[in-house]
Amino acid sequence: MGKRIGYARVSTDDQNLDLQRDALALAGCSVVYEETMSGKSADRPELGHCLKALRSGDTLVVWRLDRLGRSLPDLVGIVSRLEREGAAFESINERIETTSAAGKLIFHVFAALAEFERNLIRERTRAGLAAARVRGRKGGRKPALAELQIREIKALLKDPEIQVASVAARYGVSRTTLYRYLSKNIHER
């Protein structure tokens, strides 16, 4: 039988890990990786160390599902990785574990819901873009410079005494943006 390794996370410094520590200790975790980091952050170093420490036969234990994944698709990805590597997963609060057939079924229902959610978002995005195109709108950012501004910039830059950096600052854009607009207009003619 493998080790039970815990992962505990709180989002801010003023939150306390004690509740999670106690629950993970009661669940038989010999090692607990802890971090204070927003769940939205993709860079969670302690989670990375925890996942590297897991071996085939080990079980990753968390207090609640939201302590592990940033989103349902992220959670599914992490647990799928564990499964591929021969490790199990357990969430104490939700009573989900992937060591039994019933636990795997529940988790895969979550995975199916996550896939369904991704497909719905994709369909809504496509429908919204199509509806916008029908109304004559195109996606993307609004242009940083209007046609009139581009003409003014060209006129200003004909004077060798005027520096590109000062023109860019005057119009509130970077020199790179200025050059991109100028080269774009040259190629369009």
Automatic annotation (TrEMBL):
UniProt similarity note: Belongs to the site-specific recombinase resolvase family.
**Protein species of origin:** Pseudomonas cuatrocienegasensis
Protein name (database record): Site-specific DNA recombinase
Q: What is the lineage of its organism?
A: Bacteria, Pseudomonadati, Pseudomonadota, Gammaproteobacteria, Pseudomonadales
Q: Which residues form the Resolvase/invertase-type recombinase catalytic domain?
A: 3-136
Fetch the InterPro entries from UniProt: Homeodomain-like_sf (IPR009057), Recombinase_CS (IPR006118), Resolv_N (IPR006119), Resolvase-like_N_sf (IPR036162), Resolvase_HTH_dom (IPR006120), SSR_resolvase (IPR050639)
Entries under PROSITE patterns matching the protein: RECOMBINASES_1, RECOMBINASES_2, RECOMBINASES_3
What SMART domains has UniProt attached to this entry? Resolvase (SM00857)
Q: Name the keywords, alphabetized.
A: DNA integration, DNA recombination, DNA-binding
Q: Which Pfam families match?
A: HTH_7, Resolvase
Q: Does the keyword Endoplasmic reticulum apply?
A: no
Active site at 11 (o-(5'-phospho-dna)-serine intermediate)
